[in-house]
Here is the input.
Amino acid sequence: MSGQGNPLLTPILDRWRNTPQQLVGIFHDGDTWNPVDAARFLQRALQFSALFADHSVAAGDIVLIVLEHGIDAHAAFLGAMLIGAVPSFMPSPSVKQDAGLYWRQHREVFSHTKPRAILVYDALLADLSAAAAGSDATVIAVSRARGAPAAAPARLPAANAIALLQHSSGTTGLKKGVALSYQAIAAQLSAYRDALDLDRVPEPRFASWLPLYHDMGLISSFLLPIWLGVPILSIDPFEWTKQPALFFDAVEKFAGTHAWIPNFALLHHVRSARGGHRRDLSSLSAIICCSEPNKPEAFDAFLERFAEWGVTGATLQCCYAMAETVFAVTQSRLGEPVRRLAVDREALQAEGFATVPRPGAQETVLLSNGPPIAGCEVGVLRDGAFAGESIVGEICITAPYLFNGYYHNQDATAKAFHGKWLRSGDLGFVDRGEVFIVGRQKDVIIVNGRNIAAHDVEAAVSRVPEVKPGRAVAFGNYLASLGSEQLVVVAERCGPRVDPGAAARAINHAVFQEVGISCGDVRVMDQGWLVKTTSGKISRSENVRKYQECIAQGRFD
Here is the structure.
């Protein structure tokens, strides 16, 4: 079982062979925590290997996995790898997501990737079979994986073989499949391990509620820990949404040391925490915020609320990551508070320079994402040339662990590069060797020549008491009568008793205080109006389309 030198799988299998009793993870299952050792996990993975082989899945075939969070999802992914297949997690449908968007996107994925098999939980079998009817994929119910396990593989996939596809959230069109080799994944994990300085922690344990179809969950909270031999404390993301305290339960009960979460989750924990029972979170070495712009106010709110539980200024950290680089590009320095940088907001908006605020100027405080991890270089592309420090441009990356390209999409792959440099699509700058992110190129709204970051507007709107947190979208809508874009905000009110007019006025005031621009149009809607992607993000493109349709058809009147 030692394999033939696969840099990702060989260390995992060798460790599990030598220490079958090693704890792979503790999985939250209903009201219980279910510990799983290496022997049990590997047996389940090999059962899936046998199931895939029985359905003629061979090396290089694409296997899409649509399972509820738990042991089977993790084991099926590894089981596909062990026979050389290329697995890819896909999200399950949710009542909180637009069903039409979900099935349309997934029919497109099935048509584009041409999977050999789709593994699905039994309750979704009929619907998914119907959606995949136009493809050649075999749809397999997870309950079929109950037979004898396959034999341990005599030979593992080559290091340069494609290990997996990581699909984008699809906020602006077709979900692109990021193809990653075993060699790239192992190189990234090795570099990121060094950045995490895990030797500081005697017995690391990674706590996570992240979905596995997102690169942050897949890499930081699945492949990285099993490659390192670090146990995972795993929670279903839907259960966490309903019971955020499950994360604190895992940390306190099992001495969790690390966690990766998006910025919004900090505020979700603050809002949902109840008085009374005090938790012990002192085992936490780092909560690493990633996946979306990190905000100082979210850090401050979390620290203020949970300081008495053992959270310190050095607990909250920042990471900048991309699926195309496997995961981490940068990492803030663990063991010390994240560096904050005050910049001149007007200069940033008008000129793209991150200057120190002038006397009397309004300032914006940004959080550092830290320096690039080992092997990674970051450049800032502006007007076709690479710029120096403190100048805003497109963040570009080169590293030995870049992706192999977008699966079956040569045009998108070619557009993603500027020579050897991967174009991130993110706007940012470098200061004293550390990377600061300003926003997404596609999410910049230009109002009368001033550049407004949509996420800054959305963060301000989410702090308005009348708005349901995280349920707002900002975008530009060009008006010929103005000769410019107007800033549009659509937000969901937090309850039916909220007066839409009063909420709109509060939103406009909050936005002006944040970015110095008044909204051209504010719409306050009932909960459920905004369209979300399958990864739970607000879909900017779909909501722009919906807004414009409502305007054209007079449905806002």
